[in-house]
Amino acid sequence: LQGNDVRIILGQFDEEMAVKVFCCAYDEEMYGSKYQWIIPGWYENLWWESWINSSQCLSKNLLAAMEGYIGVDFEPLSSKIIKTISGRTPQQYEKEYNAKRGDGQSSKFHGYAYDGIWVIAKTLQRAMKYLNATNKHQKIEDFNYTNHKLGKIFLDAMNETNFFGVTGQVVFRNGERMGTIKFTQFQERKEVKVGEYNAVADTLEIINNSIRFQGLEPPKDKTIIQEELRKISLPLYSILSALTILGMIMASAFLFFNIKNRNQKLIKMSSPYMNNLIILGGMLSYASIFLFGLDGSFVSEKTFETLCTVRTWILTVGYTTAFGAMFAKTWRVHAIFKNVKMKKKIIKDQKLLVIVGGMLLIDLCILICWQVVDPLRRTVEKYNMEPDPAGRDISIRPILEHCENTHMTIWLGIVYAYKGLLMLFGCFLAWETRNVSIPALNDSKYIGMSVYNVGIMCIIGAAVSFLTRDQPNVQFCIVALVIIFCSTITLCLVFVPKLITLRTNPDAATQNRRFQFTQNQKKEDSKTSTSVTSVNQASTSRLEGLQSENHRLRMKITELDKDLEEVTMQLQDTPEKTTYIKQNHYQDLNDILSIRNFTDSKDGEKAILKNHLDQNPPAQWGSSDPSRTSKDPIEDINSPEHIQRRLSLQLPILHHAYLPSIGGVDASCASPCVSPSASPRHRHVPPSFRVMVSGL
Prior knowledge:
Blueprint: E1 8-10, H1 15-27, E2 36-40, H2 59-66, E3 70-74, H3 90-101, H4 110-134, H5 148-159, E4 162-165, E5 168-173, E6 176-178, E7 180-187, E8 190-198, E9 203-206, E10 224-229, H6 234-260, H7 265-269, H8 272-292, H9 301-338, H10 349-373, E11 377-382, E12 386-387, E13 394-404, H11 408-432, H12 444-467, H13 472-504, H14 543-573, H15 583-599, H16 604-615, H17 640-657
Parallel strand pairs: 1-2, 2-3, 10-13
Antiparallel strand pairs: 3-7, 4-5, 5-6, 7-8, 8-9, 11-13, 12-13
């Protein structure tokens, strides 16, 4: 019985066997609130005490197993106060019976015997009337047990019997007596009447609050298995949705900031269209959280199956849009600064949009193939039964909804492989452009931080989410927090530095460190960064070549500075020594003038120098004026007097032109006879006197 999960047991046995059965029921724990025993109710009073010694159970254990059993027996006498066919009520009959019985042993069947005599009398009376009415030649005295025709008449007459006797209503159906059944329950070592069943009227009467069940409700006839959907907690969904809404508000604020300041140099150089795509990808990722939290408790099965596909598409496209735009920006910086062949080619935002579109096209191809070949379906996973937390006599079988298909592992592997390659490509670009020192162009540091955080969180989130498949609240919480963290950290790393820079120093992000060359810093010359005053997005492809040329010219200026100082010292010491100035000094001065003409084409001093050079052509320092070839050598253009006169005009201009920018004499020092090292003070000069790269 226990192996077949039988809960309601009907037993037909005597008192001796009843003791053994209840003893076994106690050992097998087949009693209590989950079981109901129904046994005969005609046992003697305190019947178990006579047979307790024949069993191996203790009296208290036996009584514990017997507690609550229901006894079924016929009603000896009717409890209704109604006159019977004999003219007596059941109570009057019982009183007369006991008086005539005296001290003799009573039988519980005496009322049925009394009513039985009345049944026989009424049957014979009906049979005699029938015979007299139908067959006058046949009499009741002719009856024998082989006369089937007369037996049929008796049976029909008995089935028509219907009167109220001392045992209740007397009726027969197919030869069976339809009487009243009494129910008693064993409560606290005694039997208590709890109700009765009238077979004639087919009614069950339960005495108010008399029956007691050991549980909260009557026991079931078997283990009731109730399937319960494990759903996402509404408070948890509300909290995570609120965090998601805050993230979308933050993304909207970044979008407003990016659009409003799109004409600012800092934002314009950082590709505002790509920034908009990054924000769009982040908002799509945020939106997928709302869909991940909808399960069977909120939507129908068909809608849930549709959500399986929609949320996968939104999250995949959002990820590719955000990181694809970020990596496309980094690729442009890498192409400009690392690929010399592209020096004269402009990479516009339209090309970056094509790159992002290509990444999205790959995503769409994968997702469309996934949907056509092996679409996601709603599957239900059933877990082991659990007891009811409320203590009811039922078992809970948890079920959980999943979005799965036949080859789920293969499709996830394809998506993860593509996204992993995309992140590796982004890491490569960030590493290659790590030394580009223009913050407005170079986001490599922040991209590296973002890829690191996203990669770590995705790996941890995927692992924990897989291990908590049977706990939807934990799984949804982890997935939502991972998406919120990754999207938020990515947007903040991209836009917060720009926001801070634009508020504090808008020009700092578009400029490089300036070089300073001195004689005591020769060892650091090769490590000094290039200088750029402004960068135009349309011509950034020329930056690398111009930086290299600028660096070469600065080194040349440093070398020529030494020669110039030597010439100055010689002129200061003895004017006569100028006749011994070497020819290469003239050539060096000519180079200085040429460099000045190249590096500062817009300088105000250029006009003065040019006019002076037009009057005194410096093209060939060692050559003579043809008009003076026949004159005295003293008046030759290369005579010491002419050289000193020219230097008296050129040296102040040269001091103003380049010496202050490399740590030389102050621009106010106009004397050609004072050494640059002897200048008592140095000051920062206007940008027009700096050696710079023009045209950017």
